[in-house]
């Protein structure tokens, strides 16, 4: 079995689709986990809102706003959002998973970056931010922690949890949100933000990348906020002399205290950064441009040297020269005329033969083309079987039919670890196989994982049960340890698996269970500590040593336990009010004794002593009365004239009642 972890979300199946694998990061509103999308078989990042914020509508709306804001953006420099929903009490957000580091990690490891690195990262951030501003979204929480540097070189901005629609003045609400080191002066002083507030945060990040430190420092957040509101950001070159003056000007422009003096949005700043980059690259000419060049011998104009014996000329020039050097042709004779006529006849025959050959070639080409179309694209073509795995039978049938294939009437059932029951696991012939058009394809429909006989796990020792699970199945998460007075410590008292819909089901009585499917074990932690009659301190120590937390206490009357001592454990409750099974790590309450319950003093005034005495002692009171001697001898001769405390009052059981008796003869 897997080693117990402190995060119960790891291993959990969210909404029947997302299997949580490990934790990536934790923030103020939510925790980000690495998960597997079982439907699409891909790794995703899933952000789950903290449970203690589930009842806070403001935080829940802000969480949903992040999904809506990011979903409106489709840009290579913005983290993609795939899905959003709620599972039980947990609101979640499914995002693109980018293995890599954040800009904060890079700054922590390397300190100041080079000018080229700063410009590259800034351009990527501004490109994504420009898309957000164009869509009318202000990020409001730009900082190095929200700039992701993927292993493959991509740079993206994420965490739109504080994003809102942009307007001339977007208010932040009563609380000042965002990270204080990157807040613009108008956010600090007036609590409003627009696109220029994001530009200010980018300028602060540029300063931090160029110098390795933030421009304003202080022991308290309000000290930093005061500097943002009242001081101008210094030039990066004052902390790092290697920074070019052009980048100094960019940082000062982006971080101007007056928003009117900053770039109007990320697009304006991006264009200036690109111009500055080009200017820095051309400030010094390339080394090759100024290097000494060898003298090149260029060819002179074409001509004929007078003393040259042979010249290579163009065809027209050669013909002209030859014509000038030849003597005049003699007049044609009769023999020459006959030869000319014969030559003309042969030429005409050859011309007709050429047309015939050309026609034959055209016909052959048409036949070849038709044959190629028939076997390449027409009815006689071989086409690949399309991939239809993990789709419904109806969708698979439509895909195959559209590709020019027929679907066999009978389906074949196969087991599959990856494809849910009822979906298509494959085809016969397999996808990618080239078959003649209109061929019949058989659908292989998944029955889910292969069913394997499941031996009884309840009552087994934990190690033996682990071995059984490992033989054909997988551990479904951390082992749960539950207190039980009926099962020895270390023995299995329950085995849990998944049903067809991904819900948890008790495997007791299950004869067969799917191969490689998860099984979670509930193991006995022994009996609960016996704390009846213990003091609160002693009972708390016993429960803490057993792995439990002690919460609120309640009290009630109890005749068997002294007042102030512990009567019993108060277990957590189910929704129907019944007691939950207590497990290691749970929080339990204590029931404290208030002593015996109060008793109402019966009205015995005017009764004879024998009847009054019986009524008072039966009610549980002790008695103190006058005439103790005669009254005990002849009780019928005395009558009760007064009792203290009086009749009808509630008194602790066992308390003393004073009785006044009068002799009645």
UniProtKB/TrEMBL annotation:
Residues 18-280 form the Protein kinase domain. Keywords: ATP-binding, Kinase, Membrane, Nucleotide-binding, Serine/threonine-protein kinase, Transferase, Transmembrane, Transmembrane helix. It catalyses: L-seryl-[protein] + ATP = O-phospho-L-seryl-[protein] + ADP + H(+); L-threonyl-[protein] + ATP = O-phospho-L-threonyl-[protein] + ADP + H(+). It is an enzyme of class 2 (transferase). GO terms for molecular function: ATP binding; protein serine/threonine kinase activity. It holds the Pfam family PASTA. The chain crosses the membrane at residues 355-376. Its EC number is 2.7.11.1. Residues 380-447, 522-594, 595-663 form the PASTA domain. NCBIfam families: PknB_PASTA_kin. This is non-specific serine/threonine protein kinase. It comes from Schumannella soli.
């Amino acid at each position: 079995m897997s080693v117990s972890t402190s995060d119960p979300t790891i291993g959990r199946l969210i909404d029947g689709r997302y299997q949580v694998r490990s934790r990536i990061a934790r923030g103020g509103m939510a925790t980000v986990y690495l998960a597997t999308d079982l439907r699409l078989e891909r790794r995703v990042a899933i952000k789950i809102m903290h449970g203690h914020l589930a009842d806070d509508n403001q935080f829940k709306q802000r969480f949903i706003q992040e999904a809506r804001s990011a979903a409106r953006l489709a840009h290579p420099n913005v983290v993609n959002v795939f899905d959003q929903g709620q599972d039980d009490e947990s609101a979640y957000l499914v995002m693109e998973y980018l293995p890599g580091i954040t800009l904060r990690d890079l700054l922590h490891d390397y300190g100041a970056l080079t000018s080229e690195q700063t410009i590259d990262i800034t351009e990527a951030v501004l490109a994504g931010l420009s898309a957000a501003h164009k869509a009318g979204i202000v990020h409001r929480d730009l900082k190095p922690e929200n700039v992701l540097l993927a292993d493959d070189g991509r740079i993206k901005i994420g965490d739109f949890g504080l994003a809102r629609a942009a307007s001339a003045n977007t208010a932040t609400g009563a609380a000042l949100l965002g990270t204080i080191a990157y807040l613009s002066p108008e956010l600090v002083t007036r609590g409003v933000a627009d696109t220029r507030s994001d530009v200010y945060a980018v300028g602060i990040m540029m300063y931090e990348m160029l110098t390795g430190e933030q421009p304003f420092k202080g022991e308290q957040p309000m000290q930093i906020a005061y500097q943002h509101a009242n001081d101008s950001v210094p030039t990066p070159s004052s902390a790092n002399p290697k920074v070019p003056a052009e980048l100094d000007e960019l940082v000062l422009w982006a971080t101007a205290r007056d928003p009117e003096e900053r770039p109007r949005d990320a697009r304006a700043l991006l264009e200036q950064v690109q111009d500055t980059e080009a200017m820095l690259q051309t400030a010094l000419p390339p080394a090759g441009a100024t290097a000494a060049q060898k003298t090149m011998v260029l060819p002179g104009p074409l001509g004929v040297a007078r003393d040259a014996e042979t010249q290579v000329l163009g065809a027209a020039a050669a013909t002209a020269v030859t014509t000038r050097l030849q003597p005049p042709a003699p007049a044609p004779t009769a023999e020459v005329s006959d030869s000319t006529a014969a030559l003309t006849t042969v030429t005409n025959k050859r011309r007709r033969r050429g047309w015939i050959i050309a026609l034959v070639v055209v016909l052959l080409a048409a036949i070849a083309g038709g044959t190629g179309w028939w076997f390449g694209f027409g009815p006689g073509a071989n086409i690949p079987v399309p991939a239809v795995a993990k789709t419904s039978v109806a969708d698979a049938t439509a895909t195959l039919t559209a590709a020019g294939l027929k679907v066999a009437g009978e389906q074949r059932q196969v087991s599959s670890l990856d494809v849910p029951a009822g979906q298509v696991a494959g085809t016969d012939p397999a996808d990618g196989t080239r078959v003649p058009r209109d061929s019949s394809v058989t659908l292989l429909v998944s029955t889910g994982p292969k069913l394997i006989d499941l031996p009884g796990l309840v009552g087994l020792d934990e190690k033996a049960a682990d071995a059984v699970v490992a033989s054909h199945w997988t551990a479904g998460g951390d082992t749960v340890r539950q207190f039980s007075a009926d099962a020895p410590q270390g023995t299995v008292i329950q085995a849990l698996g998944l049903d067809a819909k991904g819900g948890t089901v008790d495997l007791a009585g299950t004869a067969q269970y799917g191969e490689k499917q998860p099984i979670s074990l509930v193991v006995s932690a022994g009996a609960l500590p016996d704390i009846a009659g213990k003091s609160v301190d002693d009972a708390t120590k016993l429960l803490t040593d057993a792995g439990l937390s002690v919460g609120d206490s309640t009290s009630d009357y109890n005749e068997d336990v002294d007042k102030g001592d512990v009567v019993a454990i108060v277990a957590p409750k189910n929704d129907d009010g019944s007691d939950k099974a207590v497990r290691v790590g749970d929080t339990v309450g204590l029931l404290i004794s208030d002593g015996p319950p109060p008793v109402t003093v019966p009205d015995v005034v005017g009764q004879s002593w024998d009847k009054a005495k019986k009524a008072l002692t039966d009610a549980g009171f002790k008695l103190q009365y006058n005439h103790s001697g005669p009254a005990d001898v002849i009780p019928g001769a005395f009558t009760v004239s007064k009792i203290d405390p009086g009749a009808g009052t509630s008194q602790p059981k066992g308390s003393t009642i004073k009785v006044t008796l009068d002799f009645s003869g």
